[in-house]
Every structure is written in C-alpha cells, then in structure tokens.
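@channel sequence for tomorrow's demo:
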Amino acid sequence: MIYFLAHWDWILERSRADIVTNIKDEFQITSICPLEENIEKIQKTYSDSINWNISREKTLDLHGLINLTKILKNINSNDILHIFTLKSLFLYILATLFAQKQYKVVASITGLGFLFAGTKLANFLKIIIKPIIKLRINKVVDVLIFQNNSNMEQFLTYSNFQNKTTLLEGSGLNTKKIKIKHELNNPVKIIFVGRLLVEKGIKEYLKLVEIFSSKEKTKFFIAGKPDFGNKSSISEKKFLEIKNNPNINYLGELDVYSELYKYDILIQPSYHEGFSRIFLEGIYSGLLCIVNDLPGTISIAEKTKSGILISNNNIIEYATEIENYYSNYLNQNFEYSREIINKLYSVDAISEKLKEIYYELS
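structure tokens (generated this afternoon):
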C-alpha cells in the first residue's frame, strides 16, 4: 500500500489524481488529507481515503498533529508513505516524535513556499524549526524529490539531508484532456490562474490591469480563489475589491483542461515556483505565456522553447510584451512544445519515474 499525505485535499486532487489513476493497476494508493471541498473526487480516485482532521488556518494545529500521529501508527512496515509539500513534511516530522517510523517515506518538495519567502515571519519560523528538521529528517525520510535544482540546493543546505535525493520536473499533465486553442480573440483576453496570494503575484497582475484599464483592445480575467489559511493570501476586503472591479472579469475557479484555451495570454508573476504546472498547461493549450524568470519557469521555457521570461517581475516588461502580443504569438512553436511536454512532463512520463522510486523502496 502507498499512502499519499497532504495537509489540503486540493493538493491530492488537483495534480495527483491523474497519477493515481495511471498507476492503480500496479499500486493501491490511499489518501491521507482533510476531506473537505474535494471529498467526492478524492474518494472516487483513491483506493481508500483517511480523513486527517487539521486546520489550515493555524500555523500549528496541535489537534491535527495528534490526529496525524494516530494515523501514522496504523501504517505497516511494508507500506510506503509519500508526502507532498514542505508544510506537510514538517508536520510529519513533528508527528514522528510520537509515532515510530517503520515504513519507507518519500517526500516531494513541490516548492519552498512561504517558509523560504524571505519575509520577517518566514525567516523567524525557519530559524525556529531548523533544529528539529536537522535532528529528525535523516531518521524519518528515505527519499526527497525536488522539482528544480535551486530548491534542492537550498533545502539540502538548510536541512543537512543526507539520504537519497532525486530531481523530478513536474507533477504530470493529462495532455489527452487539454483542449487546444485554434483562433485568437479580439479584444485579447489576458488571464491570471492560481490562488490569490501575494507570493503568486496577484498584486503585480492588478498593476497590469490598472495600466491597461483605459485600453479597449485587452480584457483581463482572474481565475482562482483566496486561500485565507495561507499567510500570503489577499484579505477578504481585497477579494471583494477584485470582484467589484469593472476592469476585471472574475471567474472563480477554472477547469484548466477544458477552458484555458479560450484565452490568449497567461500571466504568471509568481515569486517562486517548484515547477510551474500552469505554465505547462498554458503552453500546451496554445496561449502566449508571460512569466517571471524563476528556477521553476526557466527550465520549462528553455526545453519547450515557448513563453516569455520577465526579469525580476518587471511590470513595464510585462506591459511591453502584452503590447507586442501578435508578433510574440507568431514566434511560438506550439507543436514542438507539445511534443516536449508529452515526452517529459505528461502523466505517463511522471508516472514511470514515480514507479521506479516505489519499486526501489518496495
């Protein structure tokens, strides 16, 4: 049995469900997460589902930690636990202080997130939890998976992890489900897709909206919701302002595979990315993608030969590339990019690499 562990059910549904479906003939996979908004999809996809009762709005939910400890005690010695996200990994490390580890453990660091964001609070928390991570991680984690080399170097230096590490770029796109763009819109439709977090670049996107507010040739869209349990989330007041802004078409959540192709330009001004899934989805759908130059976006742009990288999230550069949309669009070779994505980043490609890791640990 393999257990997928995450502190949010969205994580195990959004980018893991297709992987589970792809490998279910070889492995039984049980989810461990809070069963909330995505409960139906989780229970339909996984062999079994264990409800981890934890609050995402608390920095450290002691009740959730106790609950996780009880769950871990029921995992057998021949099982594998696969942890997703840095926060879930830290909670697991704390829980192992009270639940002896007898099984194999893989942890995917899908991005360094808030803890490495460089804010005063993040720096304080990073210092506080460093001793326990360095003390425990080599005892309770067998394999760490990273999505880019920069994240790997940073975290290994921070944690002093000495067991096996591997680089696995991407979480697997089900490219068979992605609808392809065949014609352009007039006016040009520009979209931001993601959680409405400061670290995802929502403030920069709103500045772009303001710059183009008097121009009729562009329409701006936002798809995604705030994450009020995240320290980086926009406030309820700001969320209301976005929904009431006449220059913004707020969509709520978007079915990326079936709806993203309707837009022309994807803007991703994120502050950090493990390996940008929405960038890959945007390229495959046929959008001109204009993104911040990060370790988690640079590799994608280089290998797919698609997208435009913006230096240090420079707002003027974003605006200039939007103005040059038609010439930029003609420079994209989407057929080549799709071939690369299918070869390197599809569900099939990522599943094969994960299976190698699981069989090696079995």
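heads up for whoever presents: The chain has 16 helices and 13 strands.
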